[in-house]
Design goal:
The complex is a heterodimer of chains A (about 160) and B (about 150).
Chain A lengths: L16 H17 L5 E6 L20 E5 L4 E4 L2 E5 L4 H17 L14 H4 L4 E4 L6 H13 L5 E3 L6
Parallel strand pairs in A: 2-5, 5-6
Antiparallel strand pairs in A: 2-3, 3-4
Chain B lengths: L16 H21 L15 E2 L9 E5 L5 E3 L2 E3 L1 H13 L8 E5 L5 H12 L5 E6 L15
Parallel strand pairs in B: 2-5, 5-6
Antiparallel strand pairs in B: 2-3, 3-4
Helix pairs in contact in B: 2-3
The chains are: A alpha/beta (about 160), B alpha/beta (about 150).
């Protein structure tokens, strides 16, 4: 180490401790930030319609829930007004209540009535369709989907035909 | 590392140079890798939502991610495509996948009109996709309401 110095009291050492401190902190920051956990809403979309299919024979499901958003950001559940996009708490509460009622009345999904091997919660009809006009911003639609998901709806379907 | 003591060539300091080397290399690796971890292009997708489900598959190289940063602009992965090419690209990307893995992720900006998202949905459903994932960012911390168990 000595660079030809005559006395051996000169110790040419850099104090690296603060450097290591800083590096470790940076390292930890990067390690924490890196696994930004991605998440998503699962949504079902209708498959391509067969133009020859006779839709008149299909029976409407009385348990169908449709949340529609109007161009002025008002929400509707089926035909009942349910607050606005910016405050979907009324909608979420109503949906939660509906699902609770269905649980008590054992309103199962079509074809799931006898499937007792599947947990009760998953057999209850909790399908919610979302219908939004094309002119609306995507962000608003996602906000509503967030609220619906929070109320326990599963699956969520996006209505993509005949949109205003 | 003489344990004999007494003399003044006793060196009681740890040699930290290799450690610093390793730290620096790790740091650089993380700095370089971080931007590549994100699939697709950067989009102002919805943030701070309460209830989306985590899905590590979004970060996978093989998953199909369609990004819509602005009205009328569609990206498949990192490549800009038009709506027609999108259909064939989706078909090609999904052809090797199993039926239950056929999910298309849509990463759309919050200011994009819903009609544009619907256009993408219409394009992918022509190819037999009936499940999509709307990429959204989950708010840090716990969900305010307990979400129902996912099927």
């Amino acid at each position: 180490m000595a660079m030809g110095g005559s006395a051996n009291r000169a110790v040419p050492y850099i104090n690296v401790t603060p450097l290591i401190d800083v590096l470790l902190v940076l390292l930890i920051i990067f390690m924490v930030v890196t696994p930004a956990r991605p998440s998503r809403f699962k949504a079902d979309i209708p498959t391509q319609r067969d133009p020859n299919e006779d839709v008149s024979k299909l029976k409407p499901n009385p348990l169908t829930l449709v949340v529609s958003i109007s161009t002025d950001l008002q929400l509707k559940l089926n035909s009942e007004a349910m607050g606005s996009v910016n405050d979907p708490s009324a909608l979420a509460a109503k949906l939660q209540m509906t699902f609770q009622q269905r649980k008590e009345q054992h309103a199962y999904k079509y074809g799931m009535e006898g499937a007792s091997n599947i947990p009760e919660d998953q057999r209850i009809e909790k399908t919610v369709f979302v219908k939004a006009p094309r002119a609306l911003k995507y962000g608003e639609v996602v906000k509503v989907i967030d609220a619906i998901k929070g109320a326990g709806a599963n699956p969520i379907g996006l209505q993509v035909d005949d949109l205003p | 590392m003489g344990m004999q003591g007494g003399t003044d060539h006793l060196q009681s300091e740890i040699n930290v140079t290799p450690m610093v080397d390793i730290m620096l290399v790790l740091l650089i690796i993380f700095m370089v890798v971080t931007p590549f971890l994100q699939q697709g292009i950067t989009v102002a997708f919805p943030r701070d939502l309460r209830n989306p489900d985590e899905d590590q598959a979004i970060n996978k190289e093989s998953s199909v991610i369609i990004s819509v940063p602005r009205d009328g602009e569609y990206y498949m992965g990192k490549k800009k495509v038009n709506l027609e090419d999108l259909k064939s690209a989706v078909e090609k990307a999904l052809s090797t996948k199993k039926e239950e893995d056929k999910i298309v992720y849509i990463k759309s900006g919050i200011d994009v009109s819903y009609g544009d998202v619907v256009k993408v949905i219409n394009a992918v459903r022509e190819k037999g996709v009936d499940r999509i994932g709307l990429v959204a960012d989950k708010k840090k911390g716990k969900a305010a309401q307990p979400a129902a168990p996912a099927t």
